[in-house]
Amino acid sequence: MTVRTRVAPSPTGDPHVGTAYIALFNLCFARAHGGQFVLRIEDTDQARSTASSEQAILDSLRWLGLDWDEGPDVGGEYGPYRQSERMDIYGAYAQQLVDAGKAFVCYRRPEELNELRETRRAEGNSTALKHSDLILSDDEVRKRRDAGEPYVIRMMVPEESGVCRVQDLLRGEIELDWSMVDAQILLKSDGMPTYHLANVIDDHLMEITHVIRGEEWINSAPKHQLLYEYFGWDMPVLCHLPLLRNPDKSKLSKRKNPTSILYYQRMGFLPEALCNYLGRMGWSMPDEQEKFSLKDMQASFDIQRVSLGGPIFDVEKLRWLNGMWIREDLSQEQLAQRLVEWAFNAENLAAVLPHLQQRMETLSDFAPQASFLVSGELSLDATQFEELGMESEQLLRTLQFALWTLEGLQDWDRDSVWAALKGLADKLEIKVRDFLAPLFIAVSGSRASISVVDAMSLLGPDMTRARVRHAIDTLGGVSKKASKRFEKEFQNL
Q: Keywords in UniProt for this one (predicted)?
């Protein structure tokens, strides 16, 4: 048997370090067994999936040196490797399950589903809905079908309580309660498959032998195992890696730690160091050395050395490791070349100079005016915002609303950023100039710089959002009470 592993990210946002972490371990496992590593794009969420996000995933993984044998950009005999290009496959398999009595057509309306879940919750039961909860009379089904109402296809799951036993490469036998497993939607009303159906079908057709993924998927394992049984297919070996965590042990999230690979690239971390650090997330070399290359990791990889304790993603430890790589592995000439490639390449200069040339009188004016564009976290102080004359809560509200708006942007260019922020200012009935003033300081560190929207465009989404979060933290942060109030106000805009 040839070992085949895969990573299957969704192109719905910034490329996440968690994706790189999973990709790294799948790659190393495949290489350790002389197998193949596959990249598959799971873009069933058509409303949020974008081509730019997909390209960012490809670019960032390749920047880290995590190359794949098959994928949407390199092809392969098991393609296509985008789920949106495999749509003709999933419907037929879903219908096969319906015909076999393993799935059913469900015409339940959203408000009915909510009511059913609330009833179960009030009775102290799990909110997982079963076939018996969802079934309608034949007359009602006919009525809704004839009226052209939307429907989904759901899988049949055991009604009775009991234990589902799932084998895991690291954890052994895992027992999960069937009462917590709902009649999962397999095919949505728009004809798109859910992750659960597409994932199982694609893994089978692409002959994936080992599914190495995050432990957040453990609760979905019974559904996947059941689907393999329904189709009569052999199930791949499952291996659930521990989740990356913030220093406070919470799940790694962008609200507490930068999570985008592009952020670390923009910050000037070396790809070798970031890959090295991700390799240390729950795994260790046989000799326990902390600094090692991807090649070293592949040569020594044994997945049984993975520790199930939640690995802590500590940016300060990453900085320390990155410093070791800079000092020990780069000559001065190589370091100079890295600096040119990172910040002072022709493409970057061509983007920055149109904004700075009119402000320059000498060449030495360039460095101080461009410094914030090639800096990481800015040294902000709450006193810098005092001259704006805004009350503390108004200031935090403005920055938080702007951050949520920027996090929702799929296209990141000057016009898109400007339209989004101006639209928000208009809704808040604040003059655009006053609204942008605190963002000016948050993003550039001063009020005397190029247009804040131009600055955001040049910095990119990851660094811009990180700086706005840093500004919020500098001002004392948003309390839980205020956050709930802000969220409600923001949703009502």
A: Aminoacyl-tRNA synthetase, ATP-binding, Cytoplasm, Ligase, Nucleotide-binding, Protein biosynthesis
